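job 3f2a | input accepted
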Amino acid sequence: MRTQDSMPTLADWYHVRFDKTAVYRDVAPSGGAPWTDGFDWADVVRVCFMTGDWLTSDELYVFTSRREESYLIPTDADGGSALIGELIRRSMFPPELMLEAVKTEGRLFCWPPESPSQIE
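job 3f2a | predicted structure (120 res):
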């Protein structure tokens, strides 16, 4: 929890929630315009996990069939950890791959891989 004089953390202004049909982002950066958006679980075609380091957040990139660019969700966002668990529960990112990823810094892990030869 932050004090009145401290800088807001990512979790203070970036919120991600989900229900049985969709994922929702509610973002209100300090000094920036607030925005909201979301995507349906049924539209997810690929998930990538970029590992950070002790200074930077890990990041999720969720690709859907509805648009070319991904949805970026920092794992330090409010609800970010729960989203990782839900992606694993829904078989959208294998738990074994997540275990491999969290042991690294600055690497990108995607599921499904771009080619079948990337599946070990």
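job 3f2a | The chain has three helices and seven strands.
job 3f2a | closed
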